[in-house]
Design goal:
63% helix; three-stranded mixed sheet; 21 helices; mainly alpha
Length: 498
């Protein structure tokens, strides 16, 4: 399996390299910002505290005008390097061939679209799966050094994207749950292990941040996110309105997850019973289910709160946007949850409880079929997993019915339901999503008027006479795109009309 995995990783990496090479910039605002802070400005001027990402991607400056293609190569290397860790987790809870399938499907999933952008998503994908693999190995261990390393890994992940900090509430809940296990370990010992973890995470994030950026590095989320958060919290009278917006956006996320991950979502909901009772310490799938349930519960809250906070702040910042990219890096967790039930040693659950958790998921799928996400605006950057399958009605309804069939089958025959989900349903949305995503990316091989304007400025104005210019234009899907960074930081923005 390792040989097969290595071969498939090389093939996927080569395919992504050819797909991404030569594309014009796509996600204007984010790509420009991350390129600027990585390549052109000192770290203390960055509004995002992604200092480890900036250090690594600063080497793209050595590529000259091809810095964007060099960033894509780094993206691909980090992205495919996560596959062995996904496989290692899967091989502990299911068969090696199924674990191999999950690892491969994780690479083929729509999340690979971010390898085409100058953004930290691919590096964070790798950091998250390294941390997850080590966390699931460490959660039952009692060594101080192991917990220190675990904290350092989280701190490093937070230096790739500060969003890793939002994992802390989920981890704290898991520590409380697992503290009930292992009665031979004293409470003081457990508390000391958790304290070492938190201290190592905080020291790593702020220590490296201070070394790289000085005092500005001693920030949790950076000036950009901090400003957004402070604005949304300054007027208490708006809290009720904010709560309603959160619920409206949360509905869209839950409908999407129910449709795409019907069976593992039901299994994750079922695992919440372990919050209140002891479980079999020998069952390796239970920590995985609890980890998946808590991680998604926390991240969904954070994402919907963010979307509600910025709604109305710009022409494209609406409550209808589904920012699934803020948690899509964790989607393989749900695939692993489903695969864990294919093991002969999988815990047997009561049909009545399976029905209780499956019914709301099934209702959500039916509701999504009837409304077809009419109230939301998925696109291939924010929500690539949903964009492809919701674009063509026949594909959308077929996949919805198949997802519902897998869920209903799981109620009565759990292993068969999981097989239908993994082997029959799962490859289809991945295939169609990637098909549509590749079509969208292919459009960026042809320069539009904004690209041509930037090329003109770069070629016909000398470095001494030309100003620092950022050329922008709205794309069809509502995302600013197209940048041409010159030899020094951009300080002005101009819109060039067609």
């Amino acid at each position: 399996e390792w040989t097969i995995l290595f071969a498939i990783v090389l093939v996927v990496a080569a395919a992504l390299l050819f797909r991404n090479h030569g594309l014009y910039p796509t996600v204007m605002d984010d790509e420009y910002a991350y390129s600027k802070f990585s390549r052109l400005l000192p770290f203390d001027r960055a509004v995002f505290p992604n200092y480890l990402y900036f250090v690594v991607y600063r080497i793209t400056s050595s590529c000259g005008d091809s810095f964007l293609n060099c960033a894509r190569i780094l993206n691909i290397l980090f992205f495919v390097s996560a596959a062995p860790f996904i496989y290692l987790i899967g091989s502990r809870i299911t068969g090696e061939k199924t674990a191999l399938l999950i690892a491969v499907l994780s690479l083929l999933a729509p999340v690979n679209v971010y390898t085409a952008f100058f953004m930290p998503e691919s590096m964070y994908f790798f950091a998250f799966w390294v941390f997850t693999w080590f966390f699931l190995r460490t959660i039952r261990q009692q060594g101080i050094l192991q917990w220190m390393v675990l904290g350092m890994l989280l701190g490093l992940a937070a230096l790739v994207k500060p969003h890793a900090i939002f994992l802390l509430p989920a981890l704290a809940a898991l520590f409380i749950i697992f503290s009930r296990q292992g009665g031979d370990v004293s409470a003081s010992r457990k508390v000391s292990l958790y304290a070492v973890f938190f201290a190592a995470a905080i020291a790593t994030k702020f220590g490296i941040g201070f070394l790289l950026a000085g005092k500005p590095g001693l920030t949790i989320l950076g000036t950009s996110y901090t400003t957004l958060a402070s604005k949304s919290m300054t007027d208490p009278s708006q809290y009720s309105k904010l709560a309603l917006l959160v619920l409206e956006n949360l509905r869209g996320h839950l409908l999407a997850i129910a449709l795409l991950f019907s069976v593992p979502m039901a299994q994750a909901l079922l695992s919440f019973k372990y919050f209140f009772q002891k479980h079999d310490a020998q069952d390796a799938s239970i920590p995985l289910k609890l980890y998946a349930a808590t991680v998604f519960a926390v991240l969904l809250g954070v994402v919907t709160l963010f979307t509600a906070s910025v709604a109305g702040s710009g022409p494209f910042e609406t409550i209808a946007r589904l920012h699934m990219r803020y948690y899509s890096f964790a989607f393989p967790l749900l695939l692993l949850v489903a695969a864990s039930q294919l093991s002969p040693d999988a815990a047997v659950t009561v049909r009545r409880w399976r029905a209780i958790v499956a019914i709301p998921v099934g209702v959500a799928i039916v509701y999504a079929m009837l409304r077809k996400f009419a109230a939301y605006t998925p696109n291939f950057v924010d929500s690539p997993d949903l964009y492809g399958i919701s674009s063509v009605p026949i594909i959308f309804y077929t996949l919805s019915v198949l997802s519902l069939v897998a869920l209903v089958t799981w109620i009565f025959r759990p292993r068969l339901g999981n097989r239908i989900y993994i082997y029959a349903f799962l490859p289809l949305p991945i295939f169609f999503s990637i098909l549509f995503i590749n079509q969208e990316l292919g459009k960026r091989r042809v320069p539009d008027v904004y690209d041509k304007a930037g090329v003109f400025v770069k070629q016909y104005l000398s470095a001494e006479s030309r100003p620092d210019i950022l050329v922008v234009g709205p794309s069809a899907n509502g995302i600013f795109r197209t940048m041409f960074q010159l030899d020094s930081p951009a300080v002005a923005m101009h819109t060039i009309a067609e």
